[in-house]
Amino acid sequence: MNPPNYARGVFFTLITTALWGVLPIFMKIALEDFSSGTIVWFRFTFAFVVLFSYLSLRQSDPGSILRNPPGLCLLGGLCLGGNYFYFIRGVELSSPSNAAVLIQVAPVLLVMVGILMFGEKFKKAQFTGLFVAVAGMVLFYKDQRMNVVDTELYTTANLYIFVGAVLWVGYMAFQKKLTPAYKTQHLNLLVYGTAAVALLGTVNWVEFKSVGMSGWGMLIFLGINTLVAYGSLAEAIKCIPVSLISVIVTLNPFITLTAMYILAQSGADWVTPETIGLWGYVGACTAISGVILVLRKS
Fold it and tell me: So where are the chain's domains?
């Protein structure tokens, strides 16, 4: 792997990390005007239309995979659609930082799937990382329970986030099976389309009638976020090892935590301030560090 490709891979991975870092914050803002189902459906529909148009202009025959869709990719689309929906429900019922930190259980579960399904080995350092990650998440969870107003609602939010994490692992497992045989962007196209169709029943169409320019801007940004984040991830995979990508992407909660702290200190009133104590930040940092240890292959 030559240095220019390596730098290109890191660059695209950082784009994905930054977009996923700010994503929960913009979701929380968008939820002021739209329901969770409407937001998620629009994101997938927007991504599908734009990617289909792009592939058509490049004469890449995007319709080929739509005419003969692989079953595993359809299942992957259902999983990713569920992941988006349950994750935003977790954001809605808790906070951006809470969702960003606790969703990190997903890459840990993915490593477990790699061991069980693909015969990957689990090293001693990864066992240590698993222990550190669990300890950090427990510490973060306890801090949040002491600071939230409605503990029952907070527990429900975390259940949504965990379900979203499990569904994301399913999506990634299906993608890993399919990637050697299909073009990555064609797979993304089918995933977006499948998720959009599956989520039609969750859309509140009345919400589109009263939305202003700011609301449309927020929806379009979230749609672009989906398209660019996953497109950048696909480009990064071509250039650098997936293990390195995973470690870099796992840093995205630090972006969420930092941005939310800055917004709270600046007195911004367009996003609800979070209630995270000192031990909550310690737990978050510990959990993320543990996840990184789990993801490292060397």
Answer: 3-295
* CA-to-CA separations, 150 to 40, 140, 144, in angstroms, rounded: 25, 16, 10
Alpha carbons 76 and 193: distance in angstroms, whole number: 11
H helices, E strands: number in the chain? 14, 0
- 8 Å CB contact between 157 and 98: yes
- Asked whether residue 92 carries a pLDDT value surpassing 80, the answer given is yes
Using CA atoms, how far residue 233 sits from 60, 161, 188, 277, in Å, is: 20, 22, 11, 33
C-alpha neighbours within 13 Å on the C-beta side of residue 216? 6
Distance CA 48, CA 51 (A): 5
pLDDT at site 4:
52
Which region among 53-57, 67-71, 249-253, 270-274 has the lowest average model confidence (pLDDT)?
Answer: 270-274
Query: Which amino acid does the sequence have at 158?
Result: N
Q: Please give the DSSP secondary-structure letter assigned to residue 274.
A: P
Q: Rounded distance, CA 206 to CA 204, Å?
A: 6
Q: What angle separates helix 151-178 from helix 184-198, to the nearest 10 degrees?
A: 140
222: tokens are 């979230």
On whether the CB atoms of residues 121 and 296 are closer than 8 A, the answer is no
With bands split at pLDDT 50, 70 and 90, how would you rate the model's confidence at 109? confident
- Name the residue type at position 289: S
Q: What is the mean pLDDT of residues 64-90?
A: 95
Are the C-beta atoms of 296 and 243 separated by less than 8 Å? yes
Round to whole Å and give the CA distance between 161 and 74: 22
